[in-house]
């Protein structure tokens, strides 16, 4: 995707051939700050602090973190330490574990002398695969938007509501939930996106709005609690969100607040679709509510807000009464019964074990 006409991926190897570059998403939308990662510890910090976030992206960045660790020490002990350290950074998104397991499997039995080159090649393969996967997700989601557009008066926009950020900043390129929207916009489908602010970190207001604006997609930021009202008044045609983990039965873990959007969509007869790559499916988990670990983040994310003042300064202020504690669960689980369907790189399916296994028969057993 592009920022001010310049193409970017959200992670890449620098011109020196070994260090890794990322966009510091905690600085967006106020500043485009490109960070240079030189070791596994810095990579782990970038993931934990959400300088990079989004389930597919943290998997790709962690893969490069393994490569950086082996560049310093190519021993098996170093490989195991890096995988363990990076794996502890974020508990909910399954892509992180998937990428680290893939790196370990590729590298563990290689001679130490061959590991560094193989690690960088495997990390690049993971990144390239994610970009192509997200492009295909967009292709399979695009017909949903075309079909709605065909039923509307000529020129009337398809109104899509999305929650959090599931665009190219959350992946290596294209995005998951936003990929169909970008492709629809690019082929001339009239489109308007309702962007949930997504408290407490405001990834919708800061990141999704930033992405859509840079690409020229018409959009409007709304408070998180406005979605139900918009649905009641027929101002939402479809909801498309991303996900950090999908169980084999089709339950979906996504940013906190997603479950409430699914309930509102069901009550108003609005299709609720979830876009995901293969790496987000957790075949070992059946019941999302009971089994998916939900990350609890610092209360300061709820009590404090960061933004730009009228005179251009970036400031953090407290918005909660002094002395009041804050809880901050980062994700919730939407049961499969509330999900219209899943959009994957292999096509669309019901949010069910049968639906998923129909697209991924190799996962049977």
From TrEMBL:
Site residues by UniProt (Transition state stabilizer): 164
Keywords tagged on the record: Amino-acid biosynthesis, Isomerase, Methionine biosynthesis
Reactions catalysed: 5-(methylsulfanyl)-alpha-D-ribose 1-phosphate = 5-(methylsulfanyl)-D-ribulose 1-phosphate; 5-deoxy-alpha-D-ribose 1-phosphate = 5-deoxy-D-ribulose 1-phosphate
Enzyme Commission identifier(s): 5.3.1.23
Ligand binding (substrate): 53-55, 90, 203, 254-255
A biological process term (GO) from this entry: L-methionine salvage from methylthioadenosine
An MF annotation (GO) of this entry: S-methyl-5-thioribose-1-phosphate isomerase activity
Active site: 244
Database matches in InterPro entries: IF-2B-related, IF-M1Pi, IF_2B-like_C, Initiation_fac_2B_a/b/d, M1Pi_N, NagB/RpiA_transferase-like
Biological pathway: Amino-acid biosynthesis; L-methionine biosynthesis via salvage pathway; L-methionine from S-methyl-5-thio-alpha-D-ribose 1-phosphate: step 1/6
UniProt family annotation: Belongs to the EIF-2B alpha/beta/delta subunits family. MtnA subfamily.
Job description of the protein: Catalyzes the interconversion of methylthioribose-1-phosphate (MTR-1-P) into methylthioribulose-1-phosphate (MTRu-1-P). Also catalyzes the interconversion of 5-deoxyribose 1-phosphate and 5-deoxyribulose 1-phosphate. Part of a bifunctional DHAP-shunt salvage pathway for SAM by-products.
Protein name: Methylthioribose-1-phosphate isomerase
């Amino acid at each position: 995707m592009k920022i001010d006409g310049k193409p970017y991926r959200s992670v890449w190897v620098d011109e020196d051939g070994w260090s890794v570059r990322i966009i510091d998403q905690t600085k967006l939308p106020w500043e485009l700050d490109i960070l240079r990662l030189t070791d596994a510890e810095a990579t782990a910090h970038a993931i934990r602090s959400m300088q990079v976030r989004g389930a597919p992206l943290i998997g790709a960045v962690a893969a490069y973190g393994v490569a950086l660790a082996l560049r310093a020490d190519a021993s098996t002990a170093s490989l195991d330490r890096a995988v363990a350290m990076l794996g502890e950074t974020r508990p909910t998104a399954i892509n992180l574990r998937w990428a680290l397991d893939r790196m370990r499997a590729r590298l563990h039995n290689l001679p130490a002398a061959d590991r560094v080159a193989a690690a960088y090649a495997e990390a690049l393969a993971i990144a390239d695969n994610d970009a192509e996967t997200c492009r295909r997700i967009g292709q399979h989601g695009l017909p949903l938007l075309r079909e709605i557009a065909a039923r509307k008066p000529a020129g009337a926009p398809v109104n899509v509501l999305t929650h959090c950020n599931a665009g190219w900043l959350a992946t290596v390129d294209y995005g998951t939930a936003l990929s169909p929207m970008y492709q629809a916009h690019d082929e001339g489908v009239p489109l308007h996106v309702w962007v949930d602010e997504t408290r407490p970190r405001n990834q919708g207001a800061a990141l999704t709005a930033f992405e859509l604006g840079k690409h020229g997609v018409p959009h409007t930021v709304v408070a998180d609690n406005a979605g139900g009202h918009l649905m009641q008044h027929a101002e939402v045609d479809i909801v498309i969100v991303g996900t950090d983990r999908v169980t084999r039965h089709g339950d979906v873990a996504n940013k906190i607040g997603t479950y409430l959007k699914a309930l509102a969509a069901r009550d108003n007869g609005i299709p609720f679709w979830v876009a995901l790559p293969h790496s987000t499916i957790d075949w070992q988990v059946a019941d999302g509510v009971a089994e998916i670990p939900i990350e609890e983040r610092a209360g300061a994310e709820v009590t404090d807000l960061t933004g730009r003042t009228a005179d251009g300064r970036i400031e953090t202020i407290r918005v909660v009464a002094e002395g009041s504690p804050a809880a901050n669960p980062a994700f919730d689980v939407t049961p499969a019964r509330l999900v219209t369907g899943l959009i994957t790189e292999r096509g669309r399916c019901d949010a069910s074990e049968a639906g998923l296994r129909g697209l991924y028969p190799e996962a049977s057993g």
